[in-house]
Design brief:
180 residues, mainly alpha, 2 domains
Length: 180
């Protein structure tokens, strides 16, 4: 196994990636910012542009995944902005389950830190999806039952005016849960 880089040894990979700002900043700027931060915090380590470039290059895939995730989250928020909370939660859970499944499929071996944690996360997301689905079905069922009860009450109250009763039942049948 090769020697760890200074960035990994000193726990500075996140700082470098953060200063890179998703690849928006130049290597020169990132190098200056990282070295300035190191000096301000009393660390006696300096990075060359080449070492910064290697850290960023090795983490470009993570940066691109993060950028894609941010774009997907923005698109989802735009699409779902007028949807009820349950639909937003369902979409979020589906996305999360997809990401966990992708992570599980991309594992080359079983030598990662905590395989149980990933499997537990997937199980929890699946359980949340099931609970949300059951809640939605219960809400739809309750709405249908309430509509039926309202129709029965209207029939009793308006027995003498059949035309009014038909119009009121038609209004009740069109009732839906508002999407706010």
């Amino acid at each position: 196994m090769g020697r760890k880089s200074k960035a990994v040894e000193n726990g500075l990979v996140e700082l470098i990636i953060d200063k890179s700002n998703g690849g928006k900043n130049t290597i020169v700027y990132v190098t200056e910012e990282v070295n300035r931060w190191l000096a301000e915090n009393g660390l006696h380590v300096r990075f060359s542009r080449e070492s910064i470039r290697r850290v960023i290059k090795s983490h470009e895939e993570q940066i691109e995944d993060t950028r894609r995730s941010m774009e997907a989250a923005k698109a989802m928020a735009q699409i779902m902005r007028d949807q009820p909370g349950t639909e937003i939660a369902e979409a979020s859970l589906m996305t999360m389950a997809g990401l966990i499944n992708k992570e599980l499929r991309s594992i080359d071996s079983l030598t990662f830190e905590n395989p149980v944690e990933i499997c537990t996360s997937l199980a929890r997301v699946s359980e949340a999806q099931l609970k949300l689905s059951n809640s939605r079905m219960a809400a739809v069922s309750a709405l249908e039952k309430a509509k039926q009860n309202l129709k029965e009450e209207l029939k009793k109250a308006v027995q003498t005016d059949a035309e009014l009763l038909e119009r009121l039942i038609a209004i009740v049948d069109k009732a839906e849960v508002p999407r706010t």
